[in-house]
Amino acid sequence: MISEPFKSWATRNIVIAMSNDCRGRTSPAILRRSVMGSSADRIKDIGPQPQSFDIERATKENTNYRSVAWSGRYLQVTLMSIPPGGDIGLELHPETDQFLRLDAGKGRVQMGAAKDKLTFEAEVSDGWCVLVPAGTWHNITNIGSTPMQVYTIYAPAHHAPDKVQATAAAAAADKDDEPAVWSVQSKHAPDKHG
Hints:
Layout: E1 7-10, E2 14-20, E3 26-35, E4 38-43, H1 55-61, E5 66-71, E6 76-82, E7 91-92, E8 97-104, E9 106-112, E10 120-125, E11 129-132, E12 137-142, E13 148-155, E14 164-165, H2 168-173, E15 192-193
Antiparallel strand pairs: 1-2, 2-3, 3-4, 5-6, 5-14, 6-13, 7-15, 8-11, 8-13, 9-10, 9-12
């Protein structure tokens, strides 16, 4: 059983909470940083070690386009914040099923067999999930007036552990965003983007 954080070390702007894993080892679990006079938590990706956190709270408080929260050998959890009018980005994962859940905001999901034939469309909001089969083009656009807060689960992992990308443009420009060498990858046909 994973215990609550039991010890903290404070630096000027960062507190790293430590937690015990099931083998009694300690590992960083949560980063707390001062942001414009208030503090915000960010889940620290500790790799394929046991982890526990309030995913709804972490998702709602995330202000980054993408923040990798946990990277296991076979799957990965990322948090996303999409501004009004923005979108996740049209993409296809040839060998990866994907689960997405909205914890705040309102979106329009589109999916299909080709990027110019998105035949599935639905409005989604707080509490809704989106299930994307491998090989399906997909996108979710924020159609609300507030940020759309989403978490997603990839199987296998798609991003570098603990990767944080503040904006969609930063994510698109990031050339150092590969899954960890210890993650188990499929034959890995490269993702496609619209």
